[in-house]
């Protein structure tokens, strides 16, 4: 008999190995690293979704004539509503994987949820910036040519301008889904 043999491995601290390698955009434990960010993102996404839904509802159901500024506000409100949906997806995944994101990172980042979130954020960002640019130009045009009613921007002009913005925004948001860059690189699903 040789005596007792003890296994001391259980006393050694376990070293947590995260994949992908943790960095500023790929955390190990939580998508949103700080509690105040969690509270803030829920607050912002609820306001963005509810507020922009109400704006869309009021503008669409209004009995007033649809003017160019109202039409542009509808487009901006929809873009901001989509950004709220993106924030809701990120906040929900953070809540579901709280403290153990490393167990879900690969599934999340390679799954359809991350691709959907990435599409929403890129589409919403591009459409929002495009719409704000069109609103700025429309306001400038309205002020500059205030006395010349024949040079007024009409809805028949604004619709194709915004249609171009929608096509551009969708195209840019779809590119990572087609292999140009990727939404899988970071935990918050940005290309």
Automatic annotation (TrEMBL):
Q: Cite the Pfam families for this sequence.
A: 7tm_1
Keywords in UniProt for this one?
Cell membrane, G-protein coupled receptor, Leucine-rich repeat, Membrane, Receptor, Repeat, Transducer, Transmembrane, Transmembrane helix
The superkingdom of the source organism is Eukaryota
Q: How does it sit in the membrane?
A: Multi-pass membrane protein
Q: Name one GO molecular function term.
A: G protein-coupled peptide receptor activity
InterPro entries annotated for this entry? Answer: GPCR_Rhodpsn, GPCR_Rhodpsn_7TM, Gphrmn_rcpt_fam, LRR_dom_sf
Q: Cite the G-protein coupled receptors family 1 profile domain residue spans from the record.
A: 51-191
Tell me, which GO biological process terms does this entry list? adenylate cyclase-activating G protein-coupled receptor signaling pathway; hormone-mediated signaling pathway; male gonad development; ovarian follicle development; ovulation cycle process; phospholipase C-activating G protein-coupled receptor signaling pathway
- Keyword flag ATP-binding: no
Which sequence ranges are marked TM in the entry? 39-60, 72-93, 117-137, 158-178
GO (cellular component) term, any one: plasma membrane
Compartmental location: Cell membrane
Question: What is the designated name of this protein?
Answer: G-protein coupled receptors family 1 profile domain-containing protein
* Species of origin: Pavo cristatus
Lineage, highest ranks first: Eukaryota, Metazoa, Chordata, Craniata, Vertebrata
